[in-house]
């Protein structure tokens, strides 16, 4: 069982490592977030199931048992979301653009755009009504997808792709 919000490493990264272990470990994510992007990132990383922390005790125990048995377990409503996303991916090309860049989610692109405009994680979180940690997770996921190492490289990438257009409009020091 893995929580997405961990102090030193993202739960998505822990899930990725556990799923890559030999033999692979079945991972049930337990999270307060039912946000589509959080769920999909966890599943893409190798989570076998995803349960909201608001689940009843019996639902939680059943999910642990079923995950251990190899079943895919999702909080009601999330299974359809995951299935729909994978159907969409199966029908879509592997890359968003002709330049070969990996596909970023809409939220990752939105966060990347605001990082490129100079906003802090806290400012981005306030603007997008997310937690500071969720913004950090989106940035870490984007760094991993783009094979970049830090925020400076991320900003450079965003500028090269034109994601910093209209800089003055969203600057933190502008009203």
Q: Number of DSSP strands?
A: 4
Helix content: 40-55%
- Taking all Cα atoms into account, the compactness measure Rg is 17 Å
Structural class: alpha/beta
Low-confidence stretches: 92-98, 167-175
Tell me, rounded to a whole number, the average pLDDT: 79
Largest sheet: 4 strands, parallel
CATH-scheme architecture of the largest domain: 3-Layer(aba) Sandwich
Oligomer: single chain
Strand order of the largest sheet: 1-2-3-4
Number of H/I helices: 8
Number of domains: 2
Give the overall shape. elongated
Summarize the helix and strand pattern as letters: EHEHEHEHHHHH
Percent of residues in β-strands: 5-15%
State the end-to-end distance: 44 Å
Q: What's the CATH topology label of the largest domain?
A: Rossmann fold
Task: Assign the CATH class of the largest domain.
Answer: Alpha Beta
CATH superfamily of the largest domain: Response regulator
Describe this structure in words.
This protein is α/β, with parallel strands linked by helices. It has 2 domains: 2-91, Rossmann fold, CATH 3.40.50; 106-170, Orthogonal Bundle (Arc Repressor Mutant, subunit A), CATH 1.10.10.10. It is built from 8 helices and 4 strands; from the N terminus they run E-H-E-H-E-H-E-H-H-H-H-H. The protein has helices spanning 11-20, 36-45, 57-68, 78-91, 106-116, 121-128, 132-146, 151-160, and strands at 2-3, 28-31, 49-52, 73-74. The protein has a 4-stranded parallel beta sheet. Strand 1, helix 1 and strand 2 form a beta-alpha-beta unit. Helix 5 crosses helix 7 (132-146).
């Amino acid at each position: 069982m893995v929580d997405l919000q961990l102090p030193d490493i993202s739960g998505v990264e822990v899930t990725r490592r556990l799923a890559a272990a030999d033999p692979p470990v079945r991972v049930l994510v337990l999270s307060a977030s039912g946000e589509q992007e959080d769920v999909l990132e966890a599943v893409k990383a190798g989570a076998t199931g995803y349960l909201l922390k608001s689940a009843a005790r019996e639902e939680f125990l059943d999910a642990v048992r079923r995950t251990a048995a190899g079943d895919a377990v999702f909080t009601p409503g999330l299974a359809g979301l995951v299935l729909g996303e994978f159907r969409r991916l199966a029908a879509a090309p592997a890359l968003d653009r002709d330049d070969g860049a990996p596909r970023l989610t809409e939220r990752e692109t939105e966060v990347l755009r605001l990082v490129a405009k100079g906003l802090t994680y806290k400012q981005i979180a306030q603007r997008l009504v997310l937690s500071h940690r969720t913004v950090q997770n989106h940035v870490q996921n984007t760094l991993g997808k783009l094979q970049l190492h830090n925020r400076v490289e991320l900003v450079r990438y965003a500028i090269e792709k034109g994601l910093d257009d209209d800089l003055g409009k969203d600057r933190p020091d502008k009203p």
